[in-house]
Amino acid sequence: MKLRKISAAALTLAATLLVSGCATKDEKAASALAGRVLAGGASDIRFVQTADTVDVFTISKERGKIVISGPDANSMAMGLGYLIRHVCGKDISWYDYYSKPALPEDIGLDGPVRIEALVPERFFLNYCTYGYTMPFWGWDQWEHFIDWMAMMGITMPLANTGQEAVWQKVWRRHGMTDEEIRAYFSGPAHLPWHRMNNIDAWEGPLPQHWIDSQAELQKKILRRCRSLGMKPILSGFSGHVPGKLREIYPDAPISEVSVWCNFSKPYHCYYLDPSSPLFKTIQKEFLEEQQKMFGTDHLYGIDPFNEVEAPSWDPGFLASESRGIYESITAADPEGVWVQMAWFLINQPGNWTPERTEAFLGGVPEGKMILLDYAVEMYEGWKSTNCFYGQPYILNYLGNFGGHTSLAAPDIEILDKRLDEALARGGSNLLGFGATLEGFGLHQYLYEFTMDKAWDMGLDWEKWTESYARRFAADAAALLRRFVHDYVPSGQGGAPKNGTGPFRRPTYRTWASMVPVNTADAEDFLRKTLELGSEGYLYENLLVNAAIKLLAYKFQETGVAFWDKLTAAEPGKYPGETLILLQKDYDRLIGLLDDMERLAACNPELSLSRWISQARSWAVSPSEEYYYDTNARTILTVWGEDATLDDYATRGWSGLIGSYFKGRWTIFLDYCMDCVKHGTAFDEAACDALLLPYQREWVKASTPVEYASPAPVVPLCEEMLEKY
Length: 724
What we know:
By secondary structure, the protein is α/β, with parallel strands linked by helices. Helix 22 packs antiparallel against helix 29, helix 23 (about 535-565) packs antiparallel against helix 24 (about 580-600) and helix 25 packs antiparallel against helix 26 (about 620-635). The radius of gyration is 26 Å and the shape is globular. The two termini are about 40 Å apart.
């Protein structure tokens, strides 16, 4: 690939700083990063902090060593990531359990390279990621992930861990007992929706050990993030208060929040109007306690009306609400900046008209509120809001709801064009690019692309894909383009995404809403991926998921055939051979689930065992082990109080496929076969009466799950092609 040349002046400056004095704090942080993430070659890299006033990194070769320079630890970390990925053709996962790359002895650097950032900030994470991916992470996982973020050049990560310890201190001041406070919090995996004012108390009470240990973990997270030049976004007070405060302050303007996802009264939330003096008191108490415990970078994530109704839709009221929140922030921290999701524009477009949106954003002085344009692949909020009416904003790629594991993504060409258009026409208040994925899913492909687009690398989507593909096979670029084209942007309760049919609760709607699948194309994709003959985790990851997707397509294809046979004739008038044909489909469906379980067992990312083990590791007693186990199962399966959110976070994981999903399909298929045998019509309510209790029993059972044994990936994938 073509590299940008460094000016003579920049080289002179780097050389001057290279020989001057001891290593700076930022140089030490970058050097330590290299030592952590590389299996070999770290000692051959020297980091040099420069006096550049722009966000830039340079890579050059001097006396046999690679020199990476930049104005701070963050830019040097991005330089290291660029060296590993684009120069050496190596890869590093955002997960900690893959082997570290080793740099080659002779790094093919044709000449010095200098790359400058196109936008000053790079954002990462989503409130939901703290529930769907990271709720049970320990320091090992966090340490590696922070290093990965640094090497992606991320400057503004969302940092939500441990805030319940701060809130506990605040609510104690207002007369609540620890038992009342812990009962107000939701369970660990559901905390994001508690923090976003959607549900209280669900899967609670939260253990005190969890509250304390998460606060200590947050201190480590923030310390490392800041050492690598990041400015973590902490939490602020949005108005969400315990219902108990209505008794303590009967005259305070506290209203019940609208129902979210059918949760019943005990789990409803309450909202304190920002115009109240009590609101300003609580904001000040929270921010001061948080600063004592965690420090501050003056960035506060606050989302008062996430997926819920505002108390009033009058533009004047909305302006006063935002003004009250902003004033409460600056009363506690004069440098404070409010960071607000713009998800409301996608989630409630009918309520958030241009007039209301402008009033809400206009209640805050320009430059004191940062909007996260949340899902550029779905909706370009900056276009419908006149660039957010002057407020700084960050354009984000979301790409994954609930941590779905279907091998699919939006078209990279469209994403590329949208990011480029924002750079050209998005106004001077375009602050940065970022990613708001709800769960890590299975591939980093487009997330890395989005982060790299924040830098002037001279790479369009085609050249970038070619560079990415070099990591595991020189001719894989065309295959990657094919896989990203295969995308159905649902996952929010609508039609199943391609390849997720086996992992949805079997119902009449499951079949009626099945999206068309191209089984032949999926088979060709897997065959061509096998023909690459590469090795390494990135290749095996793609291979396993391509095979699972093929089998999932086969499952959907067979399932539709089964359903067509079942519904082709009137009850009691089935042809004699129907039962035989249905039994063949039945056996094939169960066999496909068994083989998907075998495939998933080959990939450590697709493991219920790992998820459950992480959850149980936080326990200090047998009862807590059961508590965390149940909470971990709940978020992935039944989610909430009724069936509204069933399978929202569906995962094609080993353990889930062979246990939970297979169990459901067995119940469903047995019921269908009984309908044929007894000449009765399919009754969805009667079938659900069997399925729904099974789901709850599986979640609460907390019994060991049997897992398939890992097998060599390539022979297993070849077996699947031959078998199906």
